[in-house]
Structure formats: C-alpha cells, structure tokens
Design brief:
Blueprint: H1 2-16, E1 17-21, E2 28-35, E3 40-55, E4 58-73, H2 78-89, E5 101-106, E6 117-125, E7 128-139, E8 142-150, E9 172-182
Antiparallel strand pairs: 1-3, 2-3, 2-9, 3-4, 4-5, 5-6, 6-7, 7-8, 8-9
Length: about 180
C-alpha cells in the first residue's frame, strides 16, 4: 500500500508541472546601449533555447540561451551598421568568437502578484555569471520582461566611464537595457 501511495504522489507531482517551449523565431530581445550624451544604439538578439516551467500558475524555472551571433544593429543602415555589428561582436565588447552564447537561468518559485512574476536569476555573459532580478509579465498568452545589466560585471569595458577617464562625449554608459518578448 505504501508503494502505491508513493507512486500516486510522484505521478501527481509530475503532472502538475508544465513546460512551455517558446517560439524561437518570434521571440526576441531588443537591446539598447546609450552614450553619456543620451544618444543610443539598439538592435536585436535571438534565442537558441527558451523555456518556462510552471507548477500550476507558479513559475518555478526558466532557461534562455541567446545566440550572440544573431546580434544586429537596427537603428542604422549600410556600412555603419555592419561596422558596429562587427565591433560589438569583437573582443572589445562581447567576444562572440569565443563566447557564442549568453544564458539566463532561474530555479526559484515565483508567484504571480499584481500581474507579474518577480524573478531572481543568474545571467552569464562572456563566461561570467552574476545575479539579476527582473519582472516577467504575461500579456495575451505571451510574456514580456525588461532587464538592465551592468556590462562592466561581464568584462565588457569599451569606453566605460567607470574604468576610463577623459572620454568626454565618447563615454558609453555601463547599463544595457533589454526588452524581451517571449512568444508561445
């Protein structure tokens, strides 16, 4: 009888979880980087893996792998676009030749509160992992999130006012903004 009850318990736990594999072609990240002058550049990144795991309505786990080779610059065109994309992929910035992926993972229960999930996770860029907190909001069956990370913590130091002096209006702010849209 104990074995039967234990088996029933294990089966009930397994069936209460649901994993959502998100649409990798439609889901995307819009990144924005700004200069001290308030000028900015923005573009897109795409996922090679994206999933969320729920226990009922509680979000209990998520894993997102970003293909850093998909990085685009979307605010300019022509030769300037190509030069900036290549520079962002260079070792000065994200070193995409060696660090092909960025990863965001979380493994702690988050309850839907005021229409949002408050998430604490780990973000890995250039092989360096740091904690990150953000909200994830269900919107019409999809999900949106806004994240900000400090690029210095990931050894992305080019023209950082935190590390270099006398940059003037060439200084690039350390905070990078990410607007994430996850489509089922």
């Amino acid at each position: 009888m104990k074995k039967f009850l234990f088996t029933l318990f294990v089966l009930s736990i397994q069936f209460s979880f649901s994993q959502i594999n998100l649409d990798l072609e439609k889901s995307k990240i819009k990144w924005t980087g700004k200069k001290i002058t308030n000028a900015s550049h923005w573009g897109s990144l795409y996922f090679s893996e994206a999933n969320l795991v729920f226990d009922g309505k509680d979000l209990i786990k998520g894993k997102f792998i970003v293909d850093m080779n998909t990085m685009t610059v979307d605010d300019i065109k022509g030769g300037g676009k190509e030069r900036l994309e290549n520079h962002l992929k260079d070792d000065d910035f994200f070193g995409v030749t060696v660090h092909k992926e960025a990863i965001l993972e979380f493994n702690s229960r988050s309850v839907l509160k005021d229409g949002k999930y408050n998430i604490n996770g780990l973000l890995t860029i250039k092989g360096i992992t740091n904690p990150i907190s953000f909200t994830l909001e269900p919107v019409n069956g999809n999900y949106v999130a806004n994240l900000i990370f400090d690029r210095i913590k990931y050894d992305v130091t080019y023209r950082s006012g935190s590390l270099f002096e006398n940059l003037g209006d060439r200084m690039i702010l350390d905070e990078v903004e990410l607007q994430v849209t996850l489509i089922e």
